[in-house]
Amino acid sequence: MGGKYVIGIDLGGTKINCALSDFKGDIISQSIISTKAYKGEEGVVNRIIGCIDNIIFDAKVDIYDIVSIGIGSPGPLDYKKGVIITTPNLPFKNFNIVQPISNKYNIPTYLDNDANVAALGEYVFGAGKNTNNMVYVTVSTGIGGGAIINGNVYRGNTSNALEVGHMTINPNGPKCNCGNYGCAEALASGTAISKNAKKIVEQGKKTTLVKYDKITSYEVFKEAKKGDYESLKIVNESLNYLGICIANIVSCFDPELILIGGGVSKAGDIVFDKVREVVNKRCFKTLSKSCRIDKAGLETDAGVKGAIALALIEKGIEI
Ligand SMILES: [Zn+2]
Q1: How close is the Cα of 45 to the center of ligand 1, in Å?
Q2: Tens digit of pLDDT for each residue in 40-61?
Q3: How far is Cα 36 from Cα 314, in angstroms, rounded to an integer?
Q4: Would you tell me how many other CB atoms lie within 10 Å of the CB of residue 62?
């Protein structure tokens, strides 16, 4: 096959991160711009196209040497049709995002959801290299996941598999953004941790969290590590729920590796020790003993590296 390059696009509600890379995944040129979601469907597509134009210009490569474009976007979406169905922070509603881009450049373009793309990135370039069965779970404002089964992304019937954040963990739990009650996301995401912390401050409980104007999960972990009882209680409860979510994934998929990424994973050992403990307690020993639970390897460029991996794999390029 001719050609030397692919393009990866990480489309988010606040930023568009676009990179041109060689077949080894080494980035040659990159552009990160704000999404400006308020500009609407056409407006955001034009911003993506502007970003692609920039990286092609900066890299001084021949457009005929670019073989494919991969896009990672929040879902739900239709992978086969290249359609973003709906997503809270982007203007697209049942919008085919692949068509205007592939038409403009005459380059095959592929779309997948951001969690699948991040899983692919880890599998091809990150901490999941050399595995065959792995699950990636991101824990930040929400909780999402992607699975690589026997070396392929497992997408399910409608291409939205691994919505692990909406697994019911406590049937009597709080309402989730999705409308259901007691989802992992409503109990163990960064948002859930910060919500619980604000609640105990409002209740006037004795906690060192009172000194902060703004409490995110970062502050809660920070105070928990310093020994603040209430922070530690919140963190332990949330991590127990996250552990249950991960234990359920281990029981379903029997993976050799679970990678946890996203803001909450940055709290480090406190997260991983607790999750491993819960998995060991709740899963069959055969499964828990054979499954490593580690931190995701790709940091800031995880999304764009994943989109590059998508572009390479969909085009059938050996990596
Ligand atoms: Zn939910």
Answers
A1: 29
A2: 999 999 999 999 999 999 999 9
A3: 29
A4: 11
What lies within 8 Å, CB to CB, of 39 at 6+ separation is 46, 47, 91
Q: What is the pLDDT of residue 199?
A: 97
- The C-alpha angle 206, 209, 211, rounded to 5 degrees, equals 105
Q: Is it the case that residue 1 has pLDDT exceeding 60?
A: no
Span from the CA of 177 to the centroid of ligand 1 (angstroms): 6
Neighbours of ion ligand 1 (CB under 5 A): 166, 176, 178, 180, 183
Please answer whether residues 95 and 83 qualify as being in contact, where contact means their C-beta atoms are separated by less than 8 angstroms: yes
What's the pLDDT tens digit per position in 263-289?
Answer: 999 999 999 999 999 999 999 999 999
Say how many Å lie between the CA of residue 163 and the centre of ligand 1. 9
How far, in Å, CA of 110 to CA of 309, rounded? 11
180 CA to middle of ligand 1, Å?
5
What is residue 159's predicted lDDT score, i.e. its pLDDT? 86
Which among 172, 222, 230 is positioned nearest to 202, based on CA atoms?
230
Compute, in angstroms, the gap from residue 134 CA to the centroid of ligand 1: 23
Predicted local distance difference test score (pLDDT) of residue 281: 98
Distance CA 11, CA 125 (A): 19
Q: How far apart are CA 164 and CA 176, in angstroms?
A: 13
**How far does residue 182's CA lie from ligand 1's centre (Å)?**
7
Question: Long-range contacts of range 192-197, CB-CB < 8 Å, 24 or more positions apart?
Answer: 192/238, 193/217, 193/220, 193/221, 193/234, 193/235, 193/238, 193/264, 194/220, 196/234, 196/237, 196/238, 197/230, 197/231, 197/234
Residues in Cβ contact with 70 at an 8 Å cutoff, skipping those fewer than 6 apart: 6, 7, 8, 9, 109, 110, 111, 112, 117, 306, 307, 308, 309, 310, 311, 312, 314
pLDDT score, position 264: 96
